[in-house]
Amino acid sequence: MGVLDGFMTTWSKARTTFGEGTPQDGAQFDSSPQLQQMQSNVESAKPGSKWTGAGADTYDVANQQQGRVLGEAAALDQKLRAEVDRSAAVVAAGRRDLDAVRQWVVSAASTVPQTPQGERMLYPIVGKGAGEIAEILQKSNGDLNAIAGRMRGLGSEYQALAGGFKEDEGGDKEVAAKLEEERKRNAQRDVDLALKGDKDAQQRVREVLNTIGPEQVGGTTKLSPEQASYLSQMQAQQKLRNVDQLKEAADKGAGDIMADSWQLMSNPKLEFPKTESRDGALEGNATVKGGFDQLPDGIKSTLQSPGIEQSANLQKIADITNTGHENLQRDTDFDRGMIHKVADMMESPEWRNGDPAFDNPLDLQMPWESDPPPPHADLERAATTAMDAVSHDHQVVHDAITGNVEKDNEFGQQSKVDHEHFLYNLTHEEWDDDGAAAGSLFDWTHSAATGTENGIAASTAHAYADYIGSHSNDLMHLDGSKVIGLDGVHTLGDVNPHLTYAVAEGLTPYINNIAGLPSEITGFDPLDGSGQFDTYSMENTKGLFAVLNSEQTTATLWNSEVYKQALLHETVFAQHPSNFGADAHLTSSAMLRGLVDAGTVGAFDAFAQNQNQIGATEREWKEFGYDAALGTLVAGGGELPGAGPIAGEAIDRVGGALKDEILGSTDAIDPKDPINDMSAQTASNRILTTVALTGGDVPLPQAHYDAHHNLVYPSGAHAVVVNGEIVCPPGVSYAEHQAAVVKAAGDLLGPAIGGYSAIEGMVATYNGVTKNPNPHG
Which residue from 252, 261, 448, 489 has the fewest beta carbons nearer than 10 Å? Predict the structure, then answer.
């Protein structure tokens, strides 16, 4: 399956979630006109002057109450209709947005050549499309969950309205008690049968748990009595079971409701009734708070076991967990216990059982099991399955990667992960899945960068970006002394390409933050101090760029996103050239393209030192990303904060003209050789060229063709414009031509503020960044 085919499969699955046909509106649920008419009829039937006394007064009170109930019921019907209409609008919007993403990807893909290189150029296009699909689904799910929560609230209002009416009429409290008893018995019976394999009972439990919405998971709204009863029974009836007994129930079809219940019963924000763990027990009046202690004993025992002990049980638990609903994974103690167990396994010397002798750099000692430990492949499989399971709980992942846990989170403090060791172990393992599961702990920061979790996404992304950037020399030269069983010396991208790609994907929203440029995203500080930006040393930033260039697919994704920003800046400047205000666009572009050049040199230097054979030159390595960036922008245009929309046609002209100058020589380059400096003449020439190509006026004469189609150059001109290109007329020396270009650029840009022109700023930035491309060695 090709890259585009894979995207289309993903798109089709996403589109299926929105169903077919016209979304149903709420008209059929709105009986408010009839109810309002009934209210009017009832209120008009009040006692007249001919009927007075106690009986009339009683009737009048009852009549008014009935009218009020009818009026309030009409208002609730109108609210219900509005919510159903909103849900239909969300479905329609989701379909429309998905269709737009599909059209954009198809259009962008059509500009890519049908070659192996073109297939590689599709990666960032498809990656962007897949990311937008995830954002659409996330937004739609969030909107629909919010609507569902409000609709559940309306259900409670309907019940309260009916209940209030009965009570005011002297309704029988004994009936209410019998209904409550019936609810408790239904919950006990359904959960019992569900865990024994009864499909109908499993569906009834599933339907109740599926009504629990984000407000309840977040602790802002209490569970309904029915939800609380079913959760209480799920907790009580699983409490005493070991892992094999839990697996037996899961194998009978109860896995998803069990996994959901583990998340809910371990959520410290929830409260539910206490039920004793004995056959037939019903919930009592006491309540318990969700937390780690509420989990089944078999799970608690597994997650609290040291090192690799009970790793086989962890595998079983993780397999069940992956059948549950990720929307319930919101800062749960179950997920905290899972990620702590994985971290503890990787810290253990026994983690390396069956591998060659290993000098553990963490120098930790853990007790050996009495039974022979499992092969490393089994340990790794358990860990990766558990990481897949916990990756959706972004708060828990954030705490593990950053090491920051809220002080009032008691279990969080108890299960706190050493984030430095955790990141070391994640990046120093030759994962059988090429780092896909480990990468799932990183890539979510892309889609969450602008959502409700943007704060924890930014701090998580910063933590792993800082680790990788500051440890780049180590990660670019991994060998058997650091990664057990690894032959030769390799880069992180070579050892774990999926992990490296996930890092790049997770960090793409923060490219401007990483480069020290203005960004609309907050919470992500530059990886280096301001002093390092002043001197352009930027060790951690350049180190990160080198690691993200250590594998071709990752480099294509990362460099394409960086080049997009650079090309947008170049195009905006070309459309509004000036030494005042617009000069920041040139220095931003110089910073971004300088970092790509430095990262590529750093990667190719590591390839040479590691004696890795790479079937591409540095230019080709960058060209994959550049072509992908240009193709994407040409197809869909772009936008910069404060600059507004930028047309794809203008970007095409600028990007096409600058390609050779940005990418450099087509020849293979010795990575030990210094990167060629940018000259003022080169900078001036590119400015004049891009301005001319985007329709601007440049202070140079135009050459023209005579009647015989011969090019005629203006007399005395040392530089002329020919079809948007700056050309040196015949007989003019190189020095004369360059002087004319520099002067024309200066005339175009106008006076330099403080004597420091846009050209000087661009040249100084690019040369400063590329002077020492590999500061970590």
Answer: 252
